[in-house]
Design brief:
29% helix
Length: 212
């Protein structure tokens, strides 16, 4: 679905202090940028920011970066972060993950969140674009990311992801086939999750490379 453009979005992208511009200049210098040795957590495809904003508020001892490829959606997330007192250590990057994570160096990211990514179900050759495909898992392992937290409402994607993690040699744990049935207060919902969870179960897992 195409996002409706907002007249205020370009100004937000230009002036919001939470948006990192020319992120390549921070390559290998993320800890220097944050000015501390706290762990750095990364979300791929943050949407309008509900999840990462609340996660940052609950974890003030963690630095956060959220990536989103849609300009209007990213502008919305960054504006919400300012309006809702998100952690001062939360920043956003406008980028397409499929183009790589060029500004990140091995060992900088302590946790990766992948929430409700595009399942790419229509054509088999498109499966490689899934953020849990083996090609991406190799990239995450190369970047020495020690753990991934993954959620989806798409059963086909979840099952394919389990297979991908297995083929790539990752250890999968804390698997849930109906996350909301657990009523866990620790689960922070995305906008998408709140909207669509009444129509079916939410699947979740955690994964780590066996090399860690």
């Amino acid at each position: 679905m195409r996002t409706r453009k907002k007249k205020w979005a370009p100004g937000e992208l230009e002036n919001n202090p939470r948006i990192l511009r020319d992120e390549s200049r921070f390559a290998g210098r993320l800890r220097e940028f944050f000015g501390n040795d706290r762990p750095i957590h990364l979300e791929l495809g943050c949407g309008k920011g509900r999840f990462i904003i609340e996660t940052s508020r609950r974890n003030p001892d963690v630095n956060f970066i959220a990536i989103e490829r849609d300009e209007t959606i990213l502008a919305t997330a960054a504006r919400r972060a300012e309006e809702n007192a998100a952690s001062p250590s939360l920043f956003f990057v406008l980028a397409d993950v499929n183009d790589g994570l060029e500004f990140i160096r091995p060992g900088e990211i302590s946790r990766l969140y992948i929430n409700f990514c595009d399942p790419w179900p229509t054509k088999k050759k498109r499966a490689r674009r899934r953020l849990t495909h083996e090609n991406f898992l190799k990239l995450y392992e190369k970047l020495e990311i020690p753990e991934i937290f993954f959620k989806t409402d798409n059963r086909i994607l979840f099952e394919a992801s389990l297979e991908s993690f297995s083929r790539a040699g990752w250890l999968v744990k804390n698997i849930s086939l109906d996350l909301h049935a657990l009523n866990s207060p620790d689960n922070i919902m995305t906008e998408y999750e709140e909207k669509f969870s009444p129509f079916g179960p939410i699947y979740r897992l955690e994964a780590e490379p066996r090399s860690c």
